[in-house]
Amino acid sequence: MNFFKQLVDRERVFDFMVPQQSPVDVRHGPILYLEDVSVSFDGFRAINKLNLTIDDGELRCIIGPNGAGKTTMMDIITGKTRPDEGSVWFGSRHNLLQMNEPDIASLGIGRKFQKPTVFEALTVFQNLELARATNKSILPTLTERMTGEIQDRIDEVLLLIGLKNLHRQPAGILSHGQKQWLEIGMLLMQKPRLLLVDEPVAGMTEQEMERTAELLTGLAGQQSVVVVEHDMGFVRSIARKVTVLHQGSVLAEGSMDQVSSDPRVIEVYLGEEA
Amino acid sequence: MWLTQPLYERSTRIFLGVLLLAMSLVTLLHLVVPADHPLHVSAYTVNLLGKYLSYALLAVAVDLVWGYLGILSLGHGAFFALGGYAMGMYLMRQIGDRGVYGHPELPDFMVFLNWDALPWYWLGFDSFWFAALMVLLVPGLLAFAFGYLAFRSRVTGVYLSIMTQALTFALMLAFFRNEMGFGGNNGLTDFRDMLGFDLRTDTTRLVLFLVTGLALAIGYLICRAIVTSKLGRVCVACRDAEARTRFLGYRVERVQLSVFVVSAMLAGVAGALYVPQVGIINPGEFSPLFSIEIVIWVALGGRATLYGAVIGALLVNYAKTWFTGVMPDAWLFALGAMFVLVTVLLPRGIAGLMHNLNERRRRVKDKPQDDQQELPV
Ligand SMILES: Nc1ncnc2c1ncn2[C@@H]1O[C@H](COP(=O)(O)OP(=O)(O)OP(=O)(O)O)[C@@H](O)[C@H]1O
Ligand SMILES: [Mg+2]
């Protein structure tokens, strides 16, 4: 009986939870833990016995050739795709495989999509407003009023992502690079514990890339960041630890130099480029 | 309060102002101008306008879910009809022993079927307040059950539209059956009075027209309050990028469900106001074609503006009345032609055209954009 009460209570905490006080338990090590995860699409194994551990506050880069399963991995972590087997834990308390997308999001996992997805009909400002970490159930959303505090927070992020003077424009008119920035801004508004960032610099100029690198490295420490990226220059500029994915499992892991001198990696991936 | 929020908005003030003006004008022209004067508005016209206004409320309800949430409901006629039947049951019971068979309690069609007692689901409908509650509750509960199943399984797009068609079609077949106890084929009719007022007098008709206008104003305000709130922006987010919205932590299916239920209840109210004005409710209102027609009104008027839905409903129904008077056979062709023309020439409907003209005028005047945060389509 007591157990059920606890369950109900705990559910309630999630609803009003703000990610900074997220109940994620990282006392026993990693913030994200994938073990022997596999998933097949029509018999094709996109993820194959994948093991991956991300430490709290870490900035991890994930590279791998097209179709290696990087995006699919993010789909699994965020609850979009259910794996056939394996386990996925957020901290040592939350089994992500038992949760749906909104629950996982409010637990503190934010995601930037590979193809930038912003709400094109809404203004830049409104996009950020919707992303803000707050109680997202129906009634509070209906009655929420724009306060000075919210306004300031959004302005702060607008400044950071360089879209201040476009804030009243619909997001649909933004360039590819600007949409990437807006999506990163939405991530910042969410204040997640763990950021999954899929190809953040695609379509960006050198300068924009530099700023993105600054931003992401600045986040690491308080937040954990997982970056998937093809641009080797960019990865080299931010990476501390790199994981190479190939055919759905980890091929190599280590510093950029270690990884790029690994003969297997050179063969499957860097070899094609160099 | 969030409900009064839209009152600070220019478009809502204009809409309510125009509606109020039109209602006063009709009242004035009906009551004050002598009957033989060309400007006189007859009781017949007042009645007709009241009917159009209930359609307008129905169109607003459809625009709320279609325009803002992207749910193309092709079954809103079902909620409208259920609201209508709830009101019809009340009106039936008001007839009392004045029916053809003179039975003190049973409506004529039940006497005709040799029933000797009211079925349990007719109990309570002698009370107006109970009936009024059912007008909201029955469509609301049906929408809740339907939406709960559909949205939870993430049925969207064409499949959802087809399911809504199936829903209204199934209800139509059910209501056609005499054993259902809703008058079968003929439906409910021969109403006499409502809250003690004779439905056939001009005054009652005028009052019903005004009440319907008031309901439209309130319904519009409720919808506008929803779409201008943050929830409204979440609706647009669900419409345009459902998955993204989920990853922000919004429970998309709950957003869809709650707005869908509100919309169904508004449709129910529209139906309840329609029935005493036309004097009959029959299974024809459940017809899938009618539900499609509603969507055409909204498309013609312009999606995702709410006032566009009102304009569309009024114009199309005026045209329908005119056509069925002049050449009844041509109506469906005319409707189809209008639909095609508007989709080709005015993809954003009449409201879109008005918006463009407005923009152009504003640009000519070279005035800065005004402050309201309008949701673009
Ligand atoms: N829903 C799906 N149905 C069928 N196959 C899928 C699905 N999602 C992914 N795949 C397949 O799984 C494999 C891995 O895809 P994924 O998108 O994860 O690769 P990626 O590493 O992100 O590649 P890229 O660098 O091109 O983004 C690909 O071969 C892809 O075709
Ligand atoms: Mg990918």
Automatic annotation (TrEMBL), chain A:
**Alphabetical list of SMART domains matching this protein:** AAA
Q: Which GO terms describe its molecular function?
A: ATP binding; ATP hydrolysis activity
| Entries under Gene3D superfamilies matching the protein | P-loop containing nucleotide triphosphate hydrolases
Instruction: Tell me the leader sequence span.
Output: none
GO cellular component, alphabetical, reads: plasma membrane
UniProt xrefs under InterPro entries = AAA+_ATPase (IPR003593), ABC_AA/LPS_Transport (IPR051120), ABC_transporter-like_ATP-bd (IPR003439), ABC_transptr_urea_ATP-bd_UrtD (IPR017781), BCA_ABC_TP_C (IPR032823), P-loop_NTPase (IPR027417)
Which NCBIfam families does this chain map to? Answer: urea_trans_UrtD
Protein name, as recorded: Urea transport system ATP-binding protein
Species of origin: Marinospirillum alkaliphilum DSM 21637
Automatic annotation (TrEMBL), chain B:
Q: Name one GO molecular function term.
A: branched-chain amino acid transmembrane transporter activity
Q: How does it sit in the membrane?
A: Multi-pass membrane protein
What keyword terms does UniProt attach to this protein?
Cell membrane, Membrane, Transmembrane, Transmembrane helix
A single GO cellular-component term from the record reads: plasma membrane
**InterPro entries the record matches:** ABC_transp_permease (IPR001851), ABC_transptr_urea_perm_UrtC (IPR017778), LivM-like (IPR043428)
Localization per Swiss-Prot or TrEMBL: Cell inner membrane
User: What Pfam families has UniProt attached to this entry?
Assistant: BPD_transp_2
Q: State which residue ranges cross the membrane.
A: 12-32, 52-85, 129-151, 158-176, 206-223, 255-274, 294-318, 330-350
Q: What is this protein called?
A: Amino acid/amide ABC transporter membrane protein 2, HAAT family
Q: Which organism is it from?
A: Marinospirillum alkaliphilum DSM 21637
